[in-house]
Protein 1
Amino acid sequence: MKQTSYQDICVFDLKFKNSLGLAAGLDKNGDYMDSFASLGFGFIEVGTVTPKPQYGNSKPRLYRDKSSKAIINKMGFNNKGVNHLVNKLKKRRSDIPVGVSIGKNADTPNNLAHADYLYCLDKVFKYAHYIAINISSPNTEGLREFEIKDELANLIKTLKARQLYLTKKDEYKPLLVKISPDNNEKNIENICEILLKFSIDGLICTNTSINHNHSSGSGGLSGQPLMESSTETLRMARKFLGKEFPIIASGGVMSKGDYQNKIDAGADLVQIYTGFIYEGPKLIDDILNH
Ligand SMILES: Cc1cc2nc3c(=O)[nH]c(=O)nc-3n(C[C@H](O)[C@H](O)[C@H](O)COP(=O)(O)O)c2cc1C
């Protein structure tokens, strides 16, 4: 991360007025980008979007565990489809960087998933500041298989080639990969090796965790209890990727102290989701101005 002045943070050649962002999944369709921008975020990530609109998993699919300041969700990429998001991006008035998280439809088998990612990449490329490849949601069957070395390499190779092809018509847009907090050290090392081999531009550490005992049974855990495993994943990734590789931290930031812990563990930028639900917009001010 290059910091040229207090108000000028530069990560993957993009300028940010501050290093705090909104994580993916709260504004899945880009319906509220200007509102979120007005709250003081330095950037926002919208999506995850899929080629076709889809309902997601059946309800109930969202739970709070208030005693531990956690959320358990099994939303399953409910979204209005990539075309809706592109229309919203075209009409956006705010000017902070917007990342777009892309995924695959639930009824697309994994052996055809690359076509879903390519479809979304093509559609959003012109309008996004960066594109996040989501291979770590626990709520789409088989998605995390793309965290396995060979599967990841195949997918990334295809998307990287398309990124370079699209760059002939539009300006370069960074490609990031978002991983889960449930990988062991060897898996993280393998993932990092692939990211470096194919010149991926950045990493998002992490998505939600399947390691929980919530009565809902399945779903991904976020919020305070995610902090430790998510930050440990970040620390290991930083070790394998080296000092310069851009990393966005996501997972368990509920306070300014947590934000600082992410920076200390090697994050260039930090995102919040569950902390924002529990603490409200005040958390943004607490982190940035106190
Ligand atoms: C209800 C809900 C929906 C989410 N949807 C997405 C999503 O569509 N894509 C994604 O990459 N992450 C999604 N996430 C994960 C968040 O972006 C974030 O990585 C995770 O919640 C950890 O951060 P936190 O502890 O600050 O919430 C979702 C999280 C929640 C709670």
Note: Residues 23-25, 28, 47-48, 62, 71, 73, 75, 77, 101, 134, 137, 178, 207-208, 222-223, 226, 250-253, 272-275 surround flavin mononucleotide (CB under 6 Å).
Protein 2
Amino acid sequence: MTDHDATRRRFLIQATVAASALPLLAKMAMQPAHAALPMLPLDNAQAKALNYAEDAATVKNPMFKAGSSCANCQFFTADTGACAIFPTFGVNPKGWCSGWAAKPA
Ligand code: SF4
């Protein structure tokens, strides 16, 4: 085998490996940033205790203030969908719970 053959073989192997990784890299790039956090289950004990609802429009809780939702709660991080009250879960931006507090102006 000549040096040219070895170089060509190495190039073909590297090109094959790179090409096979492209679909995975493309899929990873299309994932939303908060995809790593599982969504808060409604049957979670803390979620139930705080009356979490995935849609604030359905809330009948007397503590609910019109217009409030996770999206405008100080505990919500829009980039990740995370809530500081439920640190291992993501919450729906349209959701609400009785821990809601207005974002500082
Ligand atoms: S604390 Fe705020 S962001 Fe977290 S679930 Fe309750 S309303 Fe949503």
Note: The two ends are 71 Å apart (CA to CA).
